[in-house]
Specification:
There is one protein chain. The chain is an alpha/beta fold. 35% of the residues lie in helices and 13% in strands. Strands 3-4-5-6-7-8-9-10 form an 8-stranded parallel sheet, with helices on one face. A two-stranded antiparallel ribbon has the order 1-2. Helix 1 crosses helix 2 and helix 4 packs across helix 5. The longest helix is centred in the C-terminal third of the chain and has 16 residues.
Length: 321
């Protein structure tokens, strides 16, 4: 496993981290706690030292905390997220931070997360939505400073609204944030335009989510793909979207001249080809996925020619809406 600096924080994180949404059994169907625990342990065995969870991920914080306590001899960094008090996802323009992240709500959510995980601190506390309208307003920054002083968190970050990378530029430039979490993949390359350069300039760590487009960039989504009842991907991949994805992935495979089952590897290598990216956090609900994803931390980046090919495959859309 190779490690990268998380911005200016002084923390070193595995370039392949662990996205723990899928193990919480809140939106993804099919995870079992026993398998999730085994997968987390295997990830740590293979050098993963960064796990991303959230208050809104069902049982995820509890399961992650259990494994971290069981691996007390290993330094495992855990990031969690505070949901907006008003429950509005994503955050639209015009909201007052007193509606979304008042100090009392931040503290209450953190304390709940600490109890759920059985932990005494989190290494990164992130707001689960963000709007640059909130820079310099509200009492959230004061509360974050207090929580750092109390040792309950080490760093502060935000999870940027889906497909809105420029909506955190003012925050990044303000110096008030330690890390940002953003969607960045072969389809959505927009963060590379302005956000990633700003993060590099201001020493802000970059955590990349949805590198595999919720499964779209694995090569397993076809026009005939179905998901279990209750699985949120039924909404994400509704209508003719699976057919669109299949066609787009086939074009990437053809242009890169790779085998269809190599698309996921290339999708992760695309993200890691950016030196500004600190860590990528694919969801890994099985040991098999852990072993396949962590094996990509081998120092091999895509070539300039391959990156030039992938630059032509931007696909601006929002399947979350």
């Amino acid at each position: 496993m190779r490690y990268r600096e998380l911005g200016r924080s002084g923390l070193s994180v595995s370039e392949v981290g662990y996205g723990a949404w899928g193990i919480g059994a809140s939106s993804w169907v099919g995870a079992t706690e026993d398998e999730s625990v085994r997968a987390l342990h295997r990830a740590i065995d293979l050098g993963v030292n960064f796990i991303d969870t959230a208050r809104g991920y069902g049982e995820s914080e509890r399961i992650v905390g259990r494994v971290v306590r069981e691996r007390a001899g290993d330094e495992v960094l855990v990031a969690t997220k505070v949901p907006p008090k008003n429950g509005v996802w994503p955050a639209p323009d015009g909201l007052d931070p007193a509606e979304t992240f008042p100090g009392a709500h931040i503290r209450e959510s953190l304390e709940t997360s600490l109890r759920a995980g059985g932990l005494d601190h989190f290494d990164v506390l992130q707001f689960h939505v963000w709007s640059d309208d909130w820079v310099g307003r509200g009492d959230w920054l004061e509360t974050i400073a207090e929580l750092k002083e109390e040792g309950k968190i080490r760093l502060f970050g935000v999870s940027i609204n889906d497909h809105q990378p420029d909506n955190a530029l003012a925050l990044v430039r303000s110096g008030a944030v330690d890390s940002v979490q953003v969607i960045y993949n072969i389809f959505d390359q927009a963060p590379a335009d302005t956000l990633l350069p700003a993060c590099a300039e201001h020493g802000v760590g970059v955590i990349v989510r949805v590198a595999l487009d919720e499964g779209g960039l694995t090569g397993r989504i076809t026009a005939d793909t179905t998901f279990p009842e209750g699985d949120w991907r039924n909404r994400y991949f509704r209508g003719d979207r699976p057919a669109q994805v299949e066609q787009r992935v086939a074009a990437i495979v053809a242009d890169l001249d790779i085998a269809p089952d190599e698309i996921a590897e290339n999708a992760l290598r695309f993200v890691l080809s950016s030196p500004t990216v600190s860590t990528v956090i694919p969801g890994m609900r099985t040991i098999r996925n852990v072993e396949r994803n962590t094996a990509l931390s081998d120092g091999r980046s895509l070539t300039a020619d391959q990156l030039a090919v992938l630059a032509k495959h931007r696909w601006q859309r929002n399947f979350y809406s």
